[in-house]
Amino acid sequence: PSLVVPPFLGAPGGAPGPATSTATTRPPLRRGKWTVEEEAYVARVIQEFNSGYLNAPAGATLRTYLSERLHCDPMRITKKFTGDACIGKRVFHPAVRCATNAAAIDKARAELDALERRWRRRLELQQKESAKKAAASAAAAAA
């Protein structure tokens, strides 16, 4: 059976797609504390969403886009952005690429990709640290 890579494991900067898999096991949705890197990435996603510079389908909602990119429950997004920072039901309207904004769009996407890579590296480090702690706990319990 073939495996379709979920969007959170895909290449940085790609538009989220359907997260379908023929495998029976999928990583659990992310939850919990937001890292500094994740917050920086999300702040930039919101900025580019509002400017229309994201590589996202027209009509996508910000909440859904973020939950797919971050591989988390949409409620995690809702809880994070309340009050004046409320995301609500913002809908993406892509900017029309032309000679006057092409460089700005390319620059914004490159900077967003860099922030996403930085956040993903942080996730990998956290996962490695968690695995080490789990292994140490298991070894201590077995001793």
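Above is the first protein from milestone M3; the second protein from the same milestone is given next.
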Amino acid sequence: GSKPSKWSVDVNGEISGWPETDFVHFDHIGGAFLLIFQSMTMEGWTDLMYYAVDGMNVLFAWFYFFMLIVITSHFLLNVALAVVDEAREDFEKEDEEEQAEEEEKSATEDIKADLAVLQDDEEEEEEEPWMDCMPVRAANAVTHNDIFSYFIMFIIAGNVITMM
């Protein structure tokens, strides 16, 4: 096995590890981060502090945990919550701006559509030059026929059914 760190050896030279917390200690970085996070959330931090007091210098452990709670729980946690709240407010503002832009855009499009209808009524419809050709007129008549539209829909539905 691995050799325990100097913090888990007591004054008599005996190993005094962290009872019932095999993964929460300062012997490796993952356990140290987990200990700091558990202390930051203030869930069971007193047990961790007592384990540290038992395993190393009492004054240093008290000072360390006092500073850890003051800095992380009361300061950094509030800063993190403030950042989250600020981001939420920014998203709400962006949503409101997008909604206002969409309403303005739809109102502008409605006005343009109304103007286009009025202009179409006033202007005579000019026939496109390619409509003078007899095959183009025949193809246009066939494609704008309801029977042709139903035939195309029947073909598409048949294709979907055969692909199932």
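Note on the second protein: Residues 129-164 form one domain.
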